[in-house]
Inverse folding.
């Protein structure tokens, strides 16, 4: 994994919500946003591509990767296809029910 960029990033002080960021392209996007200084809400329900199952592992793993490189991230397991689930994710994580930890 590449180290985070020092000093100022394009997104310093910002918050990014990345859906599907537990794996694949979403994982890479979450890492890059964190490298640019964003605090990242890692949203992934942990389901298989066919929609079965559910696990907290993918989102938690992405958070660990970001934090290991010096960034800030919190996992979120909500189904953002439902409006009532997506709304809390759009608020700053320090005030959101999506995040149980503070930045």
């Amino acid at each position: 994994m590449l180290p985070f960029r020092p000093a100022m990033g394009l997104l310093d002080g910002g918050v990014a919500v990345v859906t599907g960021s537990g794996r694949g392209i979403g994982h890479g996007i979450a890492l890059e946003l964190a490298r640019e200084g964003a605090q990242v809400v890692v949203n992934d329900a942990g389901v298989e591509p066919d929609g079965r199952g559910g696990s907290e592992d993918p989102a938690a793993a992405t958070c660990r990767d970001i934090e290991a490189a010096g960034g800030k991230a919190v996992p979120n397991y909500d189904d953002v296809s439902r409006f009532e689930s997506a709304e809390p994710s759009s608020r700053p994580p320090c005030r959101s029910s999506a995040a149980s930890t503070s930045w």
Observations:
- Residues 94-103 have pLDDT under 50 and may be disordered.
- The radius of gyration is 13 Å.
